[in-house]
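Technical note accompanying the year-one report. For the benefit of new consortium partners, we illustrate the data format agreed upon in the data management plan: each record pairs a sequence with a structure-token string. No post-processing was applied to the example shown here.
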Amino acid sequence: MKKQSDLSRLMGYAGKYRYLTYASWVLAAISALVALLPFLFIFMIVREVIAVAPDFSRAENLVHNGVMAMVFAILSFLIYICALMCSHLSAFRVATNMRIGLSEHISRLPLGFVDSFGSGRLRKIINDSTGATETYLAHQLPDKYAAMATPLGLLVMLIVFDWRLGLLSLVPVAMGFAVMSAMTGKRMAEKMRQYNDALATMSNEAVEYVRGIPVVKTFGQSVFSFRKFKGTIDEYEKWVVSYTKDLRVPMMFYTAAINGVFAFLIAGAIWFTHSGVSDTFLLNLIFYIIITPVISLTLTKMMYMSENNMIVADALSRVDSVLDAAPMSESVTPSHPADSSVELRDVRFSYDGEHDVIHGVSMKIGAGETVAFVGPSGGGKSTLASLISRFFDVRGGTVLTGGADVRDIPKEELMKTVSFVFQDSKLIKASIYDNVKMGKPDATREEVMAALRAAQCSDIIEKLPDGVDTVIGTKGVYLSGGEGQRIAIARAILKDAPVIILDEATAFADPDNEAKVQAAFGELAKGKTVIMIAHRLSTVANADRIYVIKDGKVAESGKSDELISAGGIFAGMWNDYMASVEWKVSKEAERND
């Protein structure tokens, strides 16, 4: 099957607006040809002035030729404006449709796609890559056809006046094209891909760095603790410096070639007039001196167009990296959960499709039970929770909620069945009321207020200038980590999902907030199936069952007393935890003394 060209793909997004794109090409070409006519009238002015000198009173057509030069210059400008209006209307439509298409596709992808792909990289593709196509269609394509029309008109004019000088004028053009080809070939395309890769990586790491600033401030770390972010900046710097040095010599020759037209004309004029100079030859030489700067300008435009073609090709390939991601499958025979139980049967999962991070995990969580996942960092606790809520699809085995395979449960129903409270819950720039109402869009104001009270948020609302209608992030209104967590819990309470997953939900809460967050959890967990992920073992001591996850497997399971008595991994973790608590208590006692 023949691969569709980049331009054809863009026109597919344009729909009926593609005819405006075609019209812009025609108008831009006409504008370029009309723009050559003022040079002709200027030449006619020069010719007449030389012909009548020194009695300039005999010049009868100076005003007429001057007016005509101005008229055609204005006409060319107006036609070009019309071309840009057509191209911009089409380009805006293409960019809009691309962004809508990307957003709709992302909405059908697994919920964990953004985390695995990188939110910074995804933002850059949605904004910058589609923006590159907009610039290409709105400006660069019309300029391309104008640049193609200009040499054709110039060629006719150059040959008509003096073919010898015309051919000499084209020698630098050929030299410039040769150097341009060396700079804008496959090697340049690869360089452009590397450049955009470096920008995307740096953008992604910048987002992660900004998100981690609270942790840096909390623990007094410097920017160098974010080695990946600094490393991407250093690598980008090295790449740009190296790339600039590579292009230094060819760019020097290119600039010399396209600006060396006068040197060729002067050398030719000396050669052609060694036996004498005629008035006609002198006039032709003057004309070429007037017109040849247009050659340099046109050639430079064409060089940048070659680069822009590669930018668009790279932008579309990045858009494809999102569009090629497989959306979540939807069963033709949907199932519905019978209750709030959760079961994993020989579950296996891999982020890269090759190396499993979850190895044959099986467990049963009864409706209304509270279980905890504990274990070393990187053992697979959060990954298991993500599979239960179908942030990703399993590679092997089955995840069941209420006896139904999560892959067979309609997406909207699954979202109503499982509620997830992260350690760093996100709030949007909107009022607290609107942030909470996201959990249940059709909720009444009374239901929202009841959820806020249940989540222990009354003290937060009382101190804000507009109460529950205060917009977060404006006029200096910001919430602490613990306060934001309580707002997120209120949203989960309002949602009233039967299965609750708490992923390190008290990690960023200060001591004062932690007590209120724990009380909010108590309200949230009433009558629900609760899955907790925690490193602070005191928060899971009373769980109905504790699963110790290590290296993607269930290493131990049971009640806390049973696991402590067994003397395994959990017992070691418990002893370490209690020792740290006793150390803190003794230090506090020393300070009080």
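Partners are asked to follow this layout when depositing records. The longest strand covers residues 356-365.
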